[in-house]
Amino acid sequence: MRFIEEIVVDEFLPTFRSMLAEELRERGFTQREVADALGISQSAVSKYAHGEVSRNEEFLEDERVQNLVERIAEGLSTGDMTPVQALVETEVLIRRLEEGDLLATIHEREMPALAEYDGALSVHDPDSTLRTAERVRSSVRRGLRALTNASGFAGLIPNVGSNLAECLPDADGIEDVAAIPGRIFDVKGQATVPGDPEFGVSEHVASVLLSAREAGRDVRGAVNICHDDDVVASLEAAGYDAVEFDPDAPTDPIVHALEGRDDLTDTFVLYQRGAYGIEAITYVLGPDAPTVARAVRGLLTE
After folding, report:
1. Which range marks the domain in which residue 259 is found?
2. Residue 71 and residue 184 in one domain
């Protein structure tokens, strides 16, 4: 009797880890950094490097395994992917390979009696909440890097600070929106980011994003920057529709301004000119965090 988990441990994981170790080394990781990233010992990394670990050719040649190895190596090297997300993505692939796929085929080959049974037990949901949440956080990181790497972004940060946010596909509350805890501030001409994206840490930008969704706009990303007429004009010149709203409106001002506006571009601009005790602010909303970040970055390359 041989369990499919034994094939995962004895054949898939050594092959996968050795492939990932090679990719990380090619991206400049030291042996110690590879060991830390994979959660294994340096001696194990050394064995992978010297070909002392047996590898399964079927996994080596599988395009899905190759693509995942490359994607995880890239994500870990840039910081876009956390070890948690890497683990989740790998688990998803393993479960898919178990369910009537390559791992199941190998299992049947070693346990011929299994071939007479149809179907497979779903032991892992590839659309899990954890996987979706990690992808959203990763998306915010990518957008954040686009902003903070752009020269001059600090000059667009309002006094209240900026934030970059992205929500889950079915978001209905602030806890479903990932953003930067404590906001992004201009510290001596540098955009300062206090922490990694988290869910439920933004009331300001998250509430604007959720109100736009309530008004029927299919948006998941939002960022706020300072306001002046030139900023709005530049965004409009770049092809983004702009809508002004009244922050003192008696009902939700975002919903009031956007209801019935089915003519807006997918990425668009909201702005208010300020009121008593309220700073004038411009918001860019769109499909995800990297998209709205690129729109803001475009202001800095004109």
Report:
1. 138-300
2. no
- How many separate domains does the chain show? 2
Which residues are CB-contacts of 213 (< 8 A; sequence separation ≥ 6)? 167, 171, 219
The pLDDT tens digits of the residues spanning 104-136 come to: 889 888 887 666 544 444 434 555 677 889 999
CA distances from 137 to 25, 94, 144, 279, 286 (A): 26, 23, 10, 28, 16
- If one counts every other C-beta atom within 10 angstroms of the C-beta of residue 265, the result is 11
Which residues have a Cβ under 8 Å from the Cβ of 222 and sit 6 or more positions away?
Answer: 164, 165, 166, 205, 206, 208, 209, 212, 283, 284, 285, 286, 292
pLDDT tens-place string over residues 186-235: 999 999 999 999 999 999 999 999 999 999 999 999 999 999 999 999 99
The two three-digit tokens of residue 96, written as one number: 């898919």
Tokens encoding 206: 């998250």
Same domain, 236 and 155: yes
Partners of 166 in the β-ladder: 178, 221
Tell me what percent of the chain is helix, strand and coil, each rounded to the nearest 5: 50, 15, 35
